[in-house]
Write a structure and sequence with these properties.
Blueprint: E1 2-4, H1 8-20, E2 28-32, E3 36-38, H2 43-47, E4 57-59, H3 60-63, E5 67-71, E6 73-78, E7 83-87, E8 92-96, E9 100-102, E10 106-108, H4 116-119, E11 121-122, H5 126-145, H6 150-159, E12 161-165, H7 169-185, E13 198-203, H8 214-226, E14 229-233, E15 237-240, E16 244-247, E17 252-254, E18 257-260, E19 264-266, H9 268-272, E20 277-278, E21 281-283, E22 296-298, E23 303-304, E24 306-307, E25 311-315, H10 320-333, H11 339-343
Parallel strand pairs: 1-2, 1-9, 2-5, 9-22, 11-18, 12-13, 12-18, 13-14, 21-23
Antiparallel strand pairs: 3-4, 6-7, 7-8, 10-19, 15-16, 16-17, 20-21, 24-25
Helix pairs in contact: 1-10, 5-6
The structure holds flavin-adenine dinucleotide (FAD).
Flavin-adenine dinucleotide is lined by residues 4-10, 31-34, 40-41, 43-44, 73-74, 103-106, 123-124, 169-170, 267, 269, 300-302, 318-321, 323, 353.
Length: 353
């Protein structure tokens, strides 16, 4: 069994299969660019210094003892020959597989907006989270040193404004956590009053956290308003420079921190497979097998798994909880278990955020 991607879907599929199947029944290989499972829902905590990076990275070598780790990115899959190509840190290799689980997740969705690729920062990896934390602290350091002149005051505004785009999990949690953290530590800088720091959360959608429903979205809005976060709905970014963000209503916000949490797109690997997709996610049957190719499953953010619990005509939302459950469900189905293996099934703790 080869698994592509060691995130919530791939990691939990492997963990469950290792528990269910003895070494004589199956061998496992994980192809992943990192040797850890990243608890991405906790990235805002790393960006705001509440947690250390190592607190949200679970070692795959330590946890998946019977899994061989092939470090690198899968660049292509030959479904007829059952082979795939891996671009590793030092060299390229090929692997063969009997069964394959595709779980390469998603990437920050890029929009063709002038200046965004150069000046906006994503929050999808550990290094991005650490970068954002250091960047915000550096802005406070620099603002604190500025002279009380017209130019100094203008630059101070830019450095003391944080714009987060996307009122889903990433943007909302980031801005709420960051504001809370900075408010608590701002007195470390002699000239900075926490109320002087401007926080903006922007989304084209009419509500914050739409995936959580109207009631919780409204509560989140109230909390943000209480904390002094300006929520601007129905607008997005028209362009960005190193020192300003122009919104689609022509408002120009002087700002040197722009955090991009406006949605995700499936891993670029999916588009290369030349298989049917739905909004970029790989089409799968309700049992997560990929139609038209034998012995392949796809799960998590990269797959359009019909949402049997809510509305089977729609795919499950791209969340860690769905990816984790899908990984465990595939593990339970493959291969058909013997009676003793069925008895040996152990419960798996599901993490909920
Ligand atoms: C800031 C943030 C906050 C979030 N908050 C929540 C939350 O509160 N609750 C919730 O349920 N969800 C949350 N999510 C969403 C959740 O993290 C994802 O839905 C979940 O990680 C999807 O799991 P996955 O296994 O499909 O992909 P991932 O966990 O992203 O794992 C995919 C893995 O595949 C690897 N990979 C990619 N391409 C290749 C390739 N070509 N070859 C090999 N490996 C590859 C990637 O490096 C990655 O390690 C949040 C996400 C972010 C970024």
């Amino acid at each position: 069994m080869v698994v592509v991607g060691g995130g919530f879907g791939g990691f939990y599929a492997l963990r469950k299969m290792q528990k269910l199947l003895g070494p004589e029944r199956a061998s496992f290989t994980l192809v992943a660019p990192n040797d850890y499972l990243l608890y991405s829902p906790l990235l805002p905590e790393v960006a705001t210094g509440v947690l250390d990076p190592r607190d949200i990275a679970v070692s795959t070598r330590q946890t998946l003892r019977r899994t061989k780790l092939a470090l690198g990115h899968v660049t292509s899959v030959d479904f007829e020959q059952h082979r795939l190509k891996v671009s590793g840190p030092e060299s390229d290799t090929e692997l063969s597989w009997d069964k394959l689980i595709l779980a390469p997740g998603s990437v920050t969705r890029q929009f063709d907006i002038p200046g965004v690729a150069e000046h906006a920062h994503g929050l999808k990896t550990l290094s991005e989270a650490v970068f954002i934390r250091n960047h915000v602290l550096a802005q406070l350091d620099a603002a604190d040193e500025l002279p009380d002149t017209e130019a100094g005051r203008a630059e101070r505004k830019e450095r003391l404004t944080v714009v987060a785009v996307g009122a889903g999990y990433t943007g909302t949690e980031f801005v709420a956590q960051m504001q809370n953290w900075i408010r608590g530590i701002a007195t470390r800088w002699a000239s900075i009053d926490p109320s002087e720091i401007r926080w903006l959360l922007i989304d084209l959608a009419p509500a914050v956290l739409p995936e959580l429903g109207e009631k919780l979205g409204k509560e989140a809005m109230d909390v943000l308003a209480e904390r002094g976060v300006e929520v601007r709905l129905g607008v997005t970014v028209a362009s960005a420079t190193a020192t300003s963000v122009t919104l689609t209503d022509d408002d120009v916000v002087p700002a040197r921190t722009l955090v991009w949490g406006a949605g995700v797109a499936p891993s670029p690997l999916i588009a290369q497979l030349e298989l049917p997709t739905e909004k970029g996610r790989l089409v799968v049957d309700p049992d997560m097998t990929v139609p038209g190719v034998a012995d392949v499953w796809a799960i998590g953010d990269a797959a359009a798994v019909p949402d049997l619990a809510a509305d089977p005509s729609k795919p499950t939302p791209p969340t860690a909880q769905h990816a984790q459950r899908q990984g465990i469900a595939v593990a339970r189905k493959w291969p058909p278990l013997s009676a003793s293996e069925t008895d040996a099934r152990t419960s798996t703790r599901i993490w909920v955020w």
